[in-house]
Task: inverse folding
């Protein structure tokens, strides 16, 4: 039998043997101190054991309060065990009151509520509580391990070298990191690896002195997208709107569109009027974050003489023939 189990059993026996509220309270306080120590030491098993002992001790406090109130001749709220008096003098109760013993109203009420539960029902509740705590701990531990792995991979992705040379047409879909998600199952990190704004801004993109940048931005990330344009030394020119044809999530508006920002540096000429597309295009949304292939067709039509030596896709997920590509994801098929 382990030392922890021996101590746990001893504490449970001490609780059952407690004859006064004061004794039960001391066990409860000791268990709470042990729980705080276990949390600091990151000893989850000891923390859960100590928390259970505290709950059991609090229930015993409630039981003893009820028992002593029912005893004949005992003063209300007494918690000690010494009674003095003589035949001539009335019996004098010298025991401490709940207040004097440090039993606050919150603890007393909690103890009474726990004591009101039948023993079998209480044991079932304790088992259920421990099970929920252990599942939560397992989930948190898994998430911490997953986050450590993600952080390591993020560093590897940021340091992945960019293709040599410079490009005149750049197409980028940054993996924006969102601070809030509705549910864990919808967390973007579950779909693809994201990057912090400062890491995106720090990328030395391979842009020529005369170049155009087409940058995807969701509505909540518009301000951050503008910060990226500035960090990459591009000036905002205009934007197009992708109508996804299906409604997604949103805190104010249910999002059905995404923005494709156009920015420039130097003096690369605008496309010929005959190749200028409308500012709104429609394509049904596919898998999470995937952009429609239609955009490749649009950009290639705008600058038909450009080759893979002129154009590059940054943060590419699948790549396209005729384009150079750089990705922050582990695998890229071009």
Result:
């Amino acid at each position: 039998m382990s030392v922890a189990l021996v101590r746990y059993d001893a504490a449970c026996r001490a609780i059952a043997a407690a004859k006064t509220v004061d004794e039960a309270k001391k066990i409860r306080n000791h268990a709470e101190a042990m729980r705080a120590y276990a949390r600091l030491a990151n000893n989850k098993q000891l923390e859960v054991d100590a928390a259970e002992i505290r709950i059991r001790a609090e229930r015993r406090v409630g039981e003893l309060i009820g028992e002593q109130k029912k005893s004949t001749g005992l003063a209300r709220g007494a918690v000690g065990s010494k009674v003095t008096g003589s035949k001539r003098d009335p019996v004098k109760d010298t025991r401490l009151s709940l207040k004097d013993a440090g039993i606050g109203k919150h603890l007393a009420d909690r103890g009474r509520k726990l004591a009101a539960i039948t023993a079998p029902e209480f044991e079932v509740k304790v088992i259920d509580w421990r099970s929920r705590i252990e599942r939560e701990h397992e989930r948190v531990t898994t998430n911490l391990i997953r986050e450590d792995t993600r952080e390591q991979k993020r560093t590897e992705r940021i340091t992945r070298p960019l293709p040599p040379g410079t490009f005149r047409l750049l197409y980028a879909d940054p993996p924006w990191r969102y601070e809030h998600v509705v549910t864990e199952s919808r967390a973007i990190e579950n779909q693809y690896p994201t990057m912090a704004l400062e890491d995106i801004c720090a990328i030395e993109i391979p842009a020529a002195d005369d170049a155009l940048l087409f940058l995807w931005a969701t509505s909540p990330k518009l301000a951050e997208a503008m910060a990226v344009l500035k960090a990459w030394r591009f000036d905002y020119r205009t934007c197009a709107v992708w109508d996804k044809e299906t409604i997604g999530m949103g805190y104010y508006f249910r999002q059905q569109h995404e923005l494709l920002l156009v920015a420039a540096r130097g003096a690369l000429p605008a496309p010929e009027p005959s190749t200028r597309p409308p500012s709104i295009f429609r394509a049904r949304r596919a898998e999470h974050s995937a952009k429609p292939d239609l955009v490749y067709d649009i950009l290639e039509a705008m600058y038909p003489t450009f080759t893979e030596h002129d154009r590059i896709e940054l943060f590419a997920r699948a790549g396209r023939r005729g384009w150079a590509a750089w990705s922050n994801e582990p695998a890229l098929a071009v």
